[in-house]
Amino acid sequence: MAWVEHAYPDAEALTAAVAARLHAACAEALQAHGRATLALAGGRTPLPIYRALAATTLHWPQVVALPGDDRCVTHDHPASNVSALRAAFAMADGLVVESLTVADGDPDASLAHARRALAPLHATAFDAVVLGMGEDAHTASLFPGNPALPAAMAPDAGEDAFALVPDPLPPEAPFPRITLGLARLLRARHLHLLVTGARKREVLRAAQATHDPLHMPVSAVLHAPEVTVHIHWSP
Ligand code: 6PG
After folding, report:
1. What phi and psi, each to the nearest 5 degrees, are found at residue 74?
2. pTM metric for this prediction
3. Where are the domains positioned within the chain?
4. Which mutation among 18, 45, 172 tests ligand 1's pocket best, with the greatest number of atoms within 8 A of CB?
5. What value, to the nearest 5°, has the Cα angle with vertex 190 and ends 152 and 203?
């Protein structure tokens, strides 16, 4: 279990710092093995980071990004993470943004698609993973108390992607989900967790104090053995 906390005076400072770290991770990976792979959080907080990263100079055709989770909605739906990623990275010419969902958002077809898309990456550590956190201590789409959690959070999970229907459905995105499993998310060279605001900081502190994966899924990330999580916080 290890984490490093980075506190910033405001969202702009957090955005600049995390974008710089992601750029460095990509540049290092491109230099070392000619490609970079990122798994990126959905939601609203990280979008300025992605736009800032897209404005940097990288050999984008050798970079692959994918959402760490997505909502099972059509790709033109405002709640689609893959569409938000593609929009945020519009300036990154040649970047491939893989999807975990199919265009019509069907959950069963999306799960099959996600597993096919992830299979070639199975043995590869992501060069960077960005996670967000909800006030219910969910991360990615690993939602507390969900019956899909034991399989999705198993260290020896046989699959890299899982379907999950949050219960209750979160009001800000009331949809079934496809999520990378915990073991897949943790196979990362650099792991970043974004936490903003006082309420989420309280939830973070609770998750740091208690390793309770089923009730606080983010605690499974924080307490994962042999993993260092970079926690980025701003008011
Ligand atoms: C999603 C995310 C989710 C998100 C948190 C925080 O699809 O909703 O992947 O895990 O990171 O809910 O979302 P905000 O950044 O919008 O607060």
Report:
1. -65, 155
2. 0.98
3. 21-191
4. 45
5. 60
